[in-house]
Amino acid sequence: MRRLVREHELRASDLIQPLFVVHGSNIEREIGSMPGVYQRSVDGALEREVDQVHALGIPAILLFGLPAAKDEIGSENFAEDGIVQRALRHLRQRYPDLLLITDVCCCEYTSHGHCGVMRDGAVDNDATLEILGRVVVSHAEAGADIVAPSGMMDGMVAAIRAALDGAGHTDRAILSYAVKYASAFYGPFREAADSAPAFGDRRQYQMDPANVREGLLEAALDEAEGADILMVKPALAYLDVVRAVRERTDLPLAAYNVSGEYSLVKAAARQGWIDERRVVLEALTGMRRAGADVIITYHAQEAARWLAEEAGR
């Protein structure tokens, strides 16, 4: 009876699996602060993981790349043989019906670890937009279906839409990290993507965790610039923001269940303090209840297996 009258459903088809790709061969390196999450090379290691994602009915992956070398502007970010571009070409051929989404930012690729081009100790917003345009075109040409700009640069969605359209990629969608907070919950990700800033922090361009109205403004601006999907990041501590954005837009809305949220659950589960399965499914259902249509989560495969087991009862 409870299943019959349930108000919100969580399904594998609501989930996106983030993946970290690296140069090399047969690399499958676990991330210390994110048990069960790995950096994988673009060969059998990545294929084995994506095979499992695909078999579980998860419709999309989100790719993060770790470059071979870093410089001031993050040149590998838009290189034809960059790590994400290589992964895209490999996966596109093998999985024609899998949605390939790419994170579009500079922090993993730059020597300073910030999300844009630096000038006099601060991010040069407009110079960064030109870089992001080059990145998204290279991703689209390599096979990306959706590009996901995450740097919180002003005007990034409009610049990316113009770059894609100008290169003939009018059919590629934009999933904008529209409402992204300067959050302590990102800590483990910085190990996973080797993206910690070399100095300072990211409060110049990421949002104050105390602000909701600012998030609504950011979402409205990105929608007006042509975003196809909006995102709130992080998720668990910001469910009120997910609900507020949901009530203001008819666009699809994503919530990012970020690395720190994942690691907290894993650590408590390893200590035997919580029932991991129940906690994960409850948290993800809460994101759906708050208004998220799509959830990006490192728990995606585990959740998909658990949901399949429940459906088979």
What is the CATH architecture descriptor? Alpha-Beta Barrel
Cα radius of gyration in angstroms: 18 Å
Q: Tell me what portion of residues adopts beta-strand conformation.
A: 15-25%
Enumerate the spans where pLDDT stays under 50 for 5 or more consecutive residues: none
Rounded mean pLDDT is 93
CATH topology name, in short, is: TIM Barrel
Largest sheet: 8 strands, parallel, barrel
The portion of residues assigned to helices is 25-40%
Strand order of the largest sheet: 1-4-5-8-9-10-11-12
Count of distinct strands: 12
- Briefly, what CATH class? Alpha Beta
Q: Span from first to last CA? A: 14 Å
Query: Mind telling me the CATH superfamily name?
Result: Aldolase class I
Summed up, the domain count is 1
Q: What letter string, H or E per element, gives the SSE order?
A: EEEHEHEEEHEHEHHEHEHHEH
SS class: alpha/beta
Number of helices: 10
Shape: globular
